[in-house]
Specification:
The complex is a heterodimer of chains A (216) and B (513).
Chain A (H helix, E strand, L loop, with lengths): L2 E3 L2 H15 L1 E4 L5 E12 L2 H4 L2 H7 L9 H9 L11 H6 L8 H11 L7 E3 L3 H4 L10 E9 L2 E12 L3 H20 L2 E15 L3 H9 L1
Parallel strand pairs in A: 1-3, 6-7
Antiparallel strand pairs in A: 2-3, 3-7, 4-5, 5-6
Chain B lengths: L2 H11 L6 E2 H8 L1 H11 L4 H27 L3 E6 L5 E5 L6 E6 L2 E6 L9 H5 L3 E3 L9 E7 L6 H11 L3 E8 L1 H7 L2 H18 L2 E7 L6 H9 L6 E7 L8 H10 L3 E5 L7 E3 L4 E3 L2 H10 L3 E12 H5 L8 H21 L1 H12 L9 E7 L1 H4 L3 H24 L8 E5 L14 E3 L8 H16 L6 E5 L5 H14 L4 E5 L10 E4 L1
Parallel strand pairs in B: 7-8, 8-9, 9-10, 10-11, 14-15, 15-16, 18-19
Antiparallel strand pairs in B: 1-3, 2-3, 4-5, 6-14, 7-14, 11-19, 12-13, 17-20, 18-20
The chains are: A alpha/beta (216), B alpha/beta (513).
Chain lengths: 216, 513
């Protein structure tokens, strides 16, 4: 069932509720209890309005330290690989396999040249690096698609595995950061963000926090 | 702006909060010429020596001229005058301020990041918690392990170590040093040790040489070369199986004569390297070390940031332990923030050492340290430390999961370890125990104390240690019996002996930790 809403907070809460009510309970490969909804499609119509809100909410907790918004954004904007991370989106987006700047040399020129294009795709999953049996530290976001319609830039991200409580707010903010950069470069407004999560899940140890959030 | 001044600012940019001596700046900006001058100074010919000294003085004058110009332009300030009248400089930049400098189409931006409020500041004000090397708490790593086995050329190894000083504020552990002793002749080793000692003194950094006695075949003949350089900035760890401790007589005798602390790692207790810095002991977890060995990197980061806790002062006269767990979790949160800042400035802070090490795994095994000072005197229950440790382990694990969920898989781990003395902490409150005869080790009292320390040591996943200190008479044979008994009976991963004064017949042991 696709979930759709105007604001990020609204959509996030709806999706968490959906997973809680309809998800299937299972133990993940680390033995951690999880509740999973597969192929969950979620659309935020106006992310510009409140994309930062879920992050701000998560950062208010005393029980954990949620990453700073700046660091979350740096992950998609920094082109150089930092050894502090096992992988990073920025180098894959702006220097894929050491060869292709998918944004500056492809998506932006393409959308400027052909505003109707359906080819404005950025790949993050790199089979050369990621298709290794025992490598668990691989990107969650697989690809990002940019589509210019009615003078607005709409973005869809395909996410392999999405912790909807802790991960989705950051992932969506990262996609928005990239979307804003492309929109500004081609001189258009930002439109909607759709995330398609093949495994949208929450963990059993997060449920109390999620219930508290849903009640707020 | 002149090229030299641009280079000086580019160097200072790497660590905008720190101060640097004129010597450090000379070596950073005029490294090649300074190295050439130093080679002349160390030559046997008097004329060459004089020429080298004059050349080095010339370089100092040149750099000082440019530094003074930058001070006049209000880009730098003289932060202090050192012991021998040497000037120290730092950037004239407030927190959050930026400086933009352009030259020949090159532009550098120097920023002094704002440090967010940390949940330990109240404890810092009371002198209970101290950041180790506060000025470079974020900008430098505490320690790095360099694998000597991956260098066939001693000059390359020396250059690598000196370059690494840029990114380290405590110590570099030099692993596999027995291979250096095996592969190179006495003259080459002697010159390497001498030059490295000079560099360590210049930069104020330590090196800990790790020597596996099982793999070494000519350590004994090279002992005078190891103990000759007159610097406190060198330390040594000998890795040995307890059953082989009795073969260390010559090493013990030589280190006693030179009054150099002797550190013995018990290979039966741990395979991971242990090394000694000013803050305390550094090590890796067994699991990390198992993986690290398969990667065969030239260098890996060991410790990122350290907080030292004066447990005696914390507990105070009222013996109040009530918020100890909270204190440690707050310290963990502060370390997490430090790591966030480090990641942000990674390329500026440690970029050069990472590039030199040329390994993607450089940060894969690093940890942060919380170190305890005056632990025993505090009477803090071990059970409380154990449960606090479990809590910070849970916190670290949940942060790892959160960062991974956010598409930012990064390591965050904390190790606990004893602290060596920090500036304004409470005076030593260690209970001293003298061992004047090997038989004393058989007394119930001594056994109990050692068992307690053994238990405490097992809690310190960042490096447990048993330290002994001489103050009386033990013959070499008696000393060796003490060493053998401690190594074979107790599960201390590292045993430290300090030879404070006198020759072996006056040797007496007093334990402290």
């Amino acid at each position: 069932m696709p979930i759709r809403g105007k604001t990020t907070i609204e959509v996030w809460k709806q999706a968490l509720m959906f997973i809680l009510e309809n998800g299937e309970h299972f133990l993940d490969s680390n033995g951690r209890g999880a509740i999973e909804a597969t192929n969950l499609q979620v659309t935020i119509e106006t992310p510009e309005a409140d994309i930062e809100e879920p992050i701000k909410l998560l950062r208010r907790s005393d029980e954990w330290v949620y990453p700073a918004q700046e660091e979350i954004a740096d992950i998609v904007t920094h082109k150089r690989l930092s050894p502090a991370y096992a992988y990073s989106y920025g180098p894959r987006i702006f220097n894929f396999n050491g060869a292709v700047d998918q944004i500056e040399n492809y998506v932006i020129p393409l959308l400027k040249y052909d505003t109707k294009s359906r080819r404005a795709m950025v790949m993050i999953w790199n089979p050369i690096e990621d298709c290794r049996m025992h490598n668990k530290l691989v990107p969650g976001i697989i690809c990002i698609h940019f589509l210019l319609r009615r003078n607005k830039l709409n973005v869809t991200s395909i996410v392999r595995s999405n912790d909807f409580f802790f991960g989705w707010p950051a992932n969506t903010f990262q996609v928005f950061t990239l979307m804003k950069h492309v929109a500004e470069s081609i001189g258009t407004a930002t439109g909607s963000i759709t995330t398609f999560s093949m495994s949208a899940h929450i963990f059993s140890d997060e449920v109390a926090h999620i219930n508290k959030l849903l009640r707020s | 702006m002149r090229e030299t001044e641009f280079q000086i600012l580019t160097f200072l940019r790497k660590d905008p909060k720190n101060e640097f001596s004129t010597t450090q700046i000379v070596w950073a900006v005029e490294g090649k010429d300074a190295e050439a001058a130093r080679k002349l100074i160390t030559s046997d010919e008097k004329k060459q020596k004089v020429h080298g000294k004059s050349k080095l003085a010339q370089l100092h004058r040149k750099i000082l001229y440019h530094l003074n110009r930058l001070v006049t332009e209000k880009l730098l300030v003289i932060s202090r005058i050192g012991e021998k009248g040497e000037k120290y400089f730092s950037l004239a930049l407030g927190e959050g301020e930026e400086l933009h400098i352009e030259k020949n189409h090159r532009r550098i931006i120097i920023t002094r990041p704002v440090t967010p409020a940390l949940p330990i500041e109240g404890y810092e004000q009371k002198g209970i918690i101290q950041k180790f090397e506060e000025k470079s708490w974020v900008e430098k790593l505490n320690s790095v392990l360099v694998n000597a086995e991956s260098f066939t050329d001693l000059t390359n190894l020396a250059n690598f170590l000196v370059k690494s000083f840029d990114g380290v504020n405590d110590v570099i552990g030099l692993y596999g040093f027995e291979r250096v002793l095996k592969m190179h002749n006495d003259s080459a080793v002697s010159s390497f040790m001498h030059n490295l000692a000079v560099s360590c003194e210049d930069y104020g950094r330590s090196i800990c040489f790790i020597i596996d006695l099982e793999k070494a075949d000519r350590v004994e003949s090279t002992l005078p070369l190891l103990t000759k350089p007159a610097t406190d900035l060198f330390s040594f760890v000998f890795e040995v199986h307890p059953r082989e401790v009795n073969k260390m007589g010559r090493i013990v005798a030589e280190f006693t004569k030179a009054r150099i602390p002797l550190n013995i790692k018990n290979k039966d207790q741990t395979s991971a390297p242990f090394f000694v810095g000013r803050a305390g002991i550094y090590n890796f977890s067994e699991e990390d070390w198992r993986i690290a060995q398969t990667h065969k990197s030239q260098a890996i980061a060991c410790a990122q940031s350290t907080l030292c806790l004066d447990v005696y002062k914390y507990v105070g006269a009222g013996k109040d332990f009530s918020d100890f767990r909270k204190l440690l979790v707050n310290a963990s949160k502060a370390l997490l923030v430090a790591n966030q800042l480090q990641r942000k400035g990674y390329h500026d802070y440690f970029g050069s050492i990472w590039k030199t090490a040329s390994t993607p795994d450089f940060m894969l095994f690093s940890r942060n340290y919380i170190r305890f000072w005056n632990f025993e005197a505090s009477e803090l229950p071990l059970e409380l430390v154990r449960s606090a440790k479990e809590e910070i382990d849970r916190f670290s694990a949940s942060e790892y999961i959160i960062y991974q969920a956010c598409g930012m898989p990064t390591r965050f781990e904390i190790a606990l370890a004893p602290a060596f003395k920090m500036g304004s902490f409470s005076p030593e409150q260690f209970q001293r125990m003298e061992i004047t005869r090997p038989e004393e080790l058989l007394s119930e009292k001594t056994k109990n104390i050692l068992r307690q320390r053994e238990e405490l040591s097992s809690l310190f996943n960042g490096g447990g240690i048993a330290s002994f200190y001489n103050s009386g008479a033990l013959s070499l044979q008696e000393f060796m019996r003490v060493l053998e008994t401690v190594a074979t009976t107790y599960r201390f991963p590292l045993i430290n002996f300090e030879f404070k004064r006198g020759s072996m017949p006056e040797l007496k042991l007093t334990e402290f930790m």
